Structure formats: structure tokens, C-alpha cells
């Protein structure tokens, strides 16, 4: 199933991460000082206030803003690519630049023939060595499932 990164639904992303992490609704309600209904409403929201996204990022120890950064990197017009961000944020949860969703998105384009390796490298400014590491590490895993 192909992800459409042009259509970000932050509430669904947060709900999925909550389920993966197994965090109880009581803990979430206490953290946000909100009712269960208000938390459920957040899950239904396509976009959320940045302060709320920051709180979710802290609670789940996941940088949800990275989803938007990756969107900018992948879908900015050619020649206007955003340079890699410098280490400035104290809120750095992940070591690598690319999320698993981005890796899956790129590998799916390669596997379906939508893009060639060279097109991915040039259009998305992904280093050749990085792309080949993804192919050897993750594409092998997908074939065995």
C-alpha cells in the first residue's frame, strides 16, 4: 500500500504512534489535562496547533515535525531543495534524517518502477550510498515477509 505524503493527517499519525507505543488513555489525558473525548478529537484532526504537536512529540518521544520536514524535502520544486538542517534543536529524537515512512515511500517507487535509482538520487537529493543501504537493508526484509 503506497503512502501519499502529499496528504499529511497528523492526528492519524499520532494515534498510530500511541497504539504502537501502548500508552494508556489515562496517561495521555493526565499529560494533556484533557478528557478522553478531547484526545479522540485530536486523533481526528488533519492538522493541530504546533504547541499540541510539540506536546505529543515530547510524550511519545517522536519528532512529528519531521513528517512535515520530509514533505518539504520530497516535494519542493527542483532546484529549490531545502538544505539539511543543522543540529540546533534540543528535541532531537532520531539520529537519522529519514523516517521509515520516507524510506518505504522511496523503495515503493523503485519497486513499482515509478522512478529509477538515478531519478530518486537526483530528484530527492538522497545520497547514492544511503539509497543503496536502504535497498540492501529494507528491501531484502520486505521480500522475506
The residue ranges in which pLDDT falls below 50 over 5 or more consecutive positions are: 1-5, 88-94
Per DSSP, the total helix count is: 8
The major β-sheet equals: none
From the spread of the alpha carbons, the general shape counts as: elongated
Proportion in helices: 55-70%
Number of strands: 0
Radius of gyration: 17 Å
N-to-C terminal Cα separation, in Å? 14 Å
The ordered H/E elements are HHHHHHHH
Content-based structural category: mainly alpha
Average pLDDT rating = 80
Strand content: under 5%
Give a short overview.
The protein is mainly alpha-helical. Among the domains are: 54 residues; 39 residues.
Can you put this structure into words, describing what you see?
The protein is mainly α and 145 residues long. Among the domains are: 10-63; 100-138. It is built from eight helices and no strands. It has helices spanning 10-21, 25-32, 36-44, 50-60, 65-75, 100-112, 117-124, 128-144. Helix 1 (10-21) crosses helix 3 (36-44). The relative contact order is 0.11. Residues 1-5 and 88-94 have low confidence and may be disordered.
List the defining traits of the structure above:
single chain; 145 residues; mainly alpha; 0% strand; disordered N terminus
Q: How do the helices and strands line up, and which of them pair or pack?
A:
Elements: H1 10-21, H2 25-32, H3 36-44, H4 50-60, H5 65-75, H6 100-112, H7 117-124, H8 128-144
Helix pairs in contact: 1-3
